[in-house]
Amino acid sequence: MNKMNNENTVFVEVLTNIFTVEKGKLKILLARKNTEPYKGYWELPNKILSNEETLEETKEKILEETIGTSNIYTEQNYTFSKLDRNPNNRILATSYIGLIDSKTIEIKNKKNENNWEWFTINELPKIAFDHKEVIENATELLKTKLVSANILKKLFPSDFTLPELQEIYENIMNKKLDRRNFRKKFINLGLIEDTGYKSEGRSGRPAKLYRFKETIKETYLF
Amino acid sequence: MNKMNNENTVFVEVLTNIFTVEKGKLKILLARKNTEPYKGYWELPNKILSNEETLEETKEKILEETIGTSNIYTEQNYTFSKLDRNPNNRILATSYIGLIDSKTIEIKNKKNENNWEWFTINELPKIAFDHKEVIENATELLKTKLVSANILKKLFPSDFTLPELQEIYENIMNKKLDRRNFRKKFINLGLIEDTGYKSEGRSGRPAKLYRFKETIKETYLF
DNA sequence: ACAAAAGTGTTAACTTTACACCCATGT
DNA sequence: ACATGGGTGTAAAGTTAACACTTTTGT
Which of A37, A57, A191, B68 would you call most buried, defined as having the most Cβ atoms within 10 angstroms of its Cβ? Predict the structure, then answer.
């Protein structure tokens, strides 16, 4: 079996779904396409796998180029292989999810004049290729993961309020939760602690700011 | 970007982890290798992705050739890309899990003079390539899935006993469960029904045979 | 009659749900 | 002083966990 004599080799690209939470909204990082095909549409950060690299190494390069660090929580999601997913070539795509908290992001963003923009997951722009399907797939995976407390910690900055946390859960589970019960449950889990500070800027009574404790045990919520 | 001018294309193979449950043991289907490399070792059923096929189509071909049907529950698991995972060529591997109940299997096995053999997941033979890693990865995924009742239904034949079901759960969760509580929980979930028949062959009192109801709602156990 | 494995019920501890009023801030 | 959103407690219902003896079969 020699590659040069064989038609059955394919391109493989890596797609990254980088998520963060900001003001109780789940957001994803997209890039505007400035060339055809799909000029003016938005796509997931991506890169073709080279013959000397693993998928993981390729994923890390993308992260470095977009958010300036590959030192975040990531997880492989799915490999897409439809014949026509790219109009020019047969390209398989392996997608990853990555989670970064919004505090860390703000710093990195300033370093780059960015093609990149954050979009709330329910308010996406026109999406290039089959990336909408990829995003939906990744979002579903993330939602199932979000019932695990350790994942939550990767997404939330050091300071967050319980109403913000509750909002995310209500979006994920698509139902209203009782404020008292939500609060009781989370505080009793012992995963978070009061920072002593309060939120500001919104109308109404300011909310207490919490952080995740340094070491939390793997716990399943809901 | 033209493939013939570009070194950055790779082979992709599909690997299938086909699971069943027999007498309360979780088993996987492997093939003996009769050629080098790894002659005499066992490998997962596999096939190289062709340029005219999707991963899903390739997976279905493997299933037809091994168990005689592709009409079983499957799920994509992970794509492996280490540079040296195959000694001859750079080959990526996308693995799938497939679930079939042991009653259906017995029929299919008779049709084929088979290179294939079922191995209990805790008593595997010498495994070729990185397939041990692949199997471990797939088994972990399956274990997390097994807390969902719909998956369970794919794995279990029409008739099973509660002690068998309990044994699987004890293996998965790696702890002993109380027989009374297990039974109460499962029966109260309303997913299974008594067939009216009893098991035979073992010593001791025969166990009642149960089956999953036709339509069961998605329920999470444990 | 004995060995082996299956079947059964009750109580206490814990978890989840439902529910309404007061509090802190900005305008 | 009013509008906005945040914070708090209690009781009822439901779920889970702990626990030991009896039943059915084969030998």
Answer: A191
Distances (CA, A) of B15 to B11, B65, B169: 13, 13, 26
CA distances from A14 to B80, B81, B134, B153, B178 (A): 13, 12, 20, 35, 47
Identify whether the C-beta of residue A165 lies closer than 8 Å to the C-beta of residue A185. Answer: no
Banded pLDDT at A207 (limits 50, 70, 90)? very high
Instruction: Tell me, yes or no, if B4 comes closer than 8 A to chain A by beta carbon.
Output: no
| Residue from the list A10, A56, A78 with its beta carbon closest to the beta carbon of B10 | A10
> In this structure, are residues B169 and B185 in contact, taking their beta carbons and an 8 Å threshold?
no
How far is C-alpha A222 from the geometric centre of its chain's CA atoms? 21
Full-model pTM: 0.90
Of the residues B4, B5, B10, the best mutation for testing chain A's interface (the one with the most A CB atoms within 10 Å of its CB) is: B10
- Report domain extents, chain A: 10-145, 149-212
Contacts of A205 (CB under 8 A, 6+ apart): none
Chain B, window 165-184: residues with a beta carbon less than 8 angstroms from a chain A beta carbon: none
Find the range with the poorest average confidence among A119-133, A208-222, B106-120.
Answer: B106-120
Per-residue pLDDT tens digits for A44-93: 999 999 999 999 999 999 999 999 999 999 999 999 999 999 999 999 99
3-class DSSP assignment, residue B163: helix
The CATH code belonging to domain A10-145 is: 3.90.79.10
